[in-house]
Design brief:
CATH architecture of the largest domain: 3-Layer(aba) Sandwich
Number of strands: 15
Number of domains: 2
Order of helices and strands: EEEHHHEHEHHEHEHEEEHHHEEHEEEH
Organism: Oceanobacillus kimchii
Strand content: 15-25%
GO molecular function: transaminase activity
Structural class: alpha/beta
Family: Belongs to the class-III pyridoxal-phosphate-dependent aminotransferase family.
Distance between the termini: 20 Å
Low-confidence stretches: none
Helix content: 25-40%
Keywords: Aminotransferase, Pyridoxal phosphate, Transferase
Shape: globular
InterPro entries: Aminotrans_3, Aminotrans_3_PPA_site, Class-III_PLP-dep_AT, PyrdxlP-dep_Trfase, PyrdxlP-dep_Trfase_major, PyrdxlP-dep_Trfase_small
CATH superfamily of the largest domain: Type I PLP-dependent aspartate aminotransferase-like (Major domain)
Strand order of the largest sheet: 4-10-9-8-7-5-6
Largest sheet: 7 strands, mixed
Radius of gyration: 21 Å
CATH topology of the largest domain: Aspartate Aminotransferase, domain 2
CATH class of the largest domain: Alpha Beta
Number of helices: 13
Length: 425
C-alpha cells in the first residue's frame, strides 16, 4: 500500500506514516472520509488517553469556547489556572506543588532547563542514552533516541553530557544488576571527569524510555540516579511527557520506582488532544526563577485548561488509570504468548498501556525492516500502530486508556496475521 504525502504547500519535513485522510475520531477509532474505520492504538503518540473526542472533554471545551478563547497569562488573572494546578496537585506528592504551563513537550523541557540554571547557578545537564526530550534546540541537545533528530542541526546547546542507559547493554553477557552497576559507575565517572557536581545543575531522564524503545529500566537504576543526585546536590528531572496521566498504569511512571523527582515535565495526555504542557516543582525551587525571565503568549490557553481539568476528572471518575494497568497486563500477557510462538519477537516489555514488542530479522540482524513491514500490514487491515527504538525495531502499543479486552483481542488477531504475512508464513 503506497502512502500519500502532503501537497507542495506543506513542508516535507513532516513524515506521513499512514494514508488515512481522517474525518473524525471516536473512542479508540478513527474514520476516514470514505467511512472506513481504523483502530487507533497510537493515541496520537500517547496524547488521547481518554480516547478520541471523549464526550465530557468535548462538552467542557464547547462551554469554554463560548466564554473566552484567549486570556494572556501576564495580562489577566485567570482562576482557571489555579483550578488546573489544584487538579494536578491532587494526583502528585505534596512536594510537587508549584507549576509553570506551556504549550508543548519541547517547550516544557526548555522551561525545565531554564529553571535549573536559574535555581542552581550551574550550567551543565546530564541526560541518558536513548532519551527523547523534544526537537527545539535545547530539548534536542538532550535527545539521543535517534540520530535523525540531531543530524544537520549541530552544534547543539553546550553543557550537555550523555550517560549510558542499561538498555543499550541488553545483549551483552551482563545480567540486569551488572548493567545497572556499570551505568551508575559511568555516571559517577562523568561527574569526576567531564562535569563536576559543582557545575552540574540537573540530570534529566524518561523513567521509561519512549522513542528510544519503550524500555522499563530496573528499579535500582532509577533509584541509583536519585541517590547520586542527592549525594552531589544535583536536581533530578523526570520527563513524563509520554508516560504521564495514567499511561503506565499509574498516574506517573515515577510511582513504579518509589522515587520522586525534583522537577516533573508533563504534556501529551494532560488535555486529551489540546496543546498543553508544564513543569511541576516545589515552590521553594520555583521561587528561585526570576520573574519575567520566561513566559509565552498562548499558554495556558483557556480551552486547553478546560480540557485538562475535565480530563483529570474523567481519569479519576472512570477509573481509567486502573483500567490502564488491568488491560495493560492483559495485553502484555497476550503478546508474551505471541512471542513464545514467534522467534522473531525477541522481547515484550512495558507498563500499563505503554508496551513495546521488539523484532529481529531471520538472520538475527536489526529488526527495522520487519517491524515496519508488520506495521504497514496492520495498517492495511485497519489497525494503526507505530514503531520506535534506535533502528525502528520496536512495535509500540499505545492504546487509549478506555480500551477494553475485546478491543485488545481484535487487535491482536490482526497483529498476528500481519506478523505471519510479514515473515512469509
Amino acid at each position: 500500500m503506497s502512502l500519500k504525502s502532503y501537497s507542495d504547500s506543506v513542508s516535507k519535513v513532516w513524515p506521513l506514516f499512514t494514508n488515512i485522510d481522517v474525518d473524525y475520531g471516536e473512542g479508540i477509532f478513527l474514520y476516514d472520509r470514505k467511512g472506513k474505520k481504523y483502530i487507533d492504538f497510537t493515541s496520537g503518540i500517547g496524547v488521547t488517553n481518554t480516547g478520541h473526542c471523549h464526550p465530557r472533554v468535548v462538552n467542557a471545551i464547547k462551554k469554554q469556547s463560548e466564554k473566552l478563547l484567549h486570556g494572556q497569562t501576564t495580562i489577566l488573572y485567570n482562576s482557571m489556572i489555579d483550578e488546573l494546578a489544584s487538579s494536578i496537585k491532587k494526583i502528585l506528592p505534596d512536594e510537587l506543588n508549584c507549576m509553570f504551563f506551556s504549550n508543548s513537550g519541547s517547550e516544557a523541557v526548555e522551561s525545565a532547563i531554564k529553571l535549573v540554571r536559574h535555581a542552581t547557578g550551574k550550567p551543565n545537564i546530564i541526560c541518558f542514552q536513548g532519551g527523547y526530550h523534544g526537537r527545539s534546540i535545547g530539548a534536542l541537545s538532550l535527545t539521543t533516541a535517534k540520530s535523525v533528530y540531531r543530524s544537520g542541526y549541530q552544534p547543539l546547546m553546550s553543557g550537555v553530557f550523555v550517560s549510558p542507559h542499561p538498555y543499550f547493554k541488553q545483549h551483552s553477557n551482563e545480567n540486569s544488576e551488572q548493567r545497572v552497576k556499570h551505568c551508575l559507575d559511568e555516571l559517577e565517572h562523568i561527574l569526576n571527569t567531564q562535569t563536576s557536581p559543582e557545575e552540574t545543575a540537573a540530570m534529566i531522564i524518561e523513567p521509561i524510555l519512549g522513542e528510544g524503545g519503550y524500555v522499563v529500566p530496573p528499579k535500582s537504576f532509577i533509584q541509583g540516579i536519585r541517590n547520586i543526585c542527592d549525594k552531589y546536590n544535583i536536581l533530578l528531572i523526570f520527563d513524563e511527557i509520554q508516560t504521564g496521566f495514567g499511561r503506565t498504569g499509574k498516574y506517573f511512571a515515577f510511582e513504579h520506582f518509589k522515587v520522586k523527582p525534583d522537577i516533573l515535565v508533563i504534556a501529551k495526555g494532560i488535555a486529551s488532544g489540546l496543546p498543553l504542557s508544564g513543569i511541576v516543582a516545589n515552590k521553594k525551587l520555583m521561587d528561585k526563577w526570576v520573574t519575567g525571565s520566561h513566559g509565552g503568549t498562548y499558554a495556558p490557553n483557556p480551552l486547553s485548561i478546560a480540557a485538562a481539568v475535565e480530563t483529570i476528572k474523567v481519569l479519576e471518575e472512570e477509573k481509567l488509570v486502573h483500567n490502564s494497568e488491568d488491560i495493560g497486563n492483559y495485553l502484555l500477557d497476550k503478546l508474551q504468548n505471541i512471542k513464545n510462538k514467534h522467534p522473531n519477537v525477541i522481547d515484550v516489555r512495558g507498563k500499563g498501556l505503554m508496551i513495546g514488542c521488539e523484532l529481529i530479522e531471520e538472520d538475527g540482524q536489526s529488526g527495522t525492516y520487519i517491524a515496519e513491514k508488520v506495521r504497514k500490514n496492520c495498517l492495511s487491515k485497519g489497525l494503526i500502530l507505530l514503531t520506535c527504538g534506535p533502528y525502528n525495531q520496536v512495535i509500540r502499543w499505545i492504546p487509549p486508556l478506555t480500551t477494553k479486552k475485546s478491543d485488545i483481542d481484535r487487535s491482536l488477531k490482526i497483529f498476528e496475521i500481519a506478523l505471519k504475512q510479514s515473515l512469509g508464513r
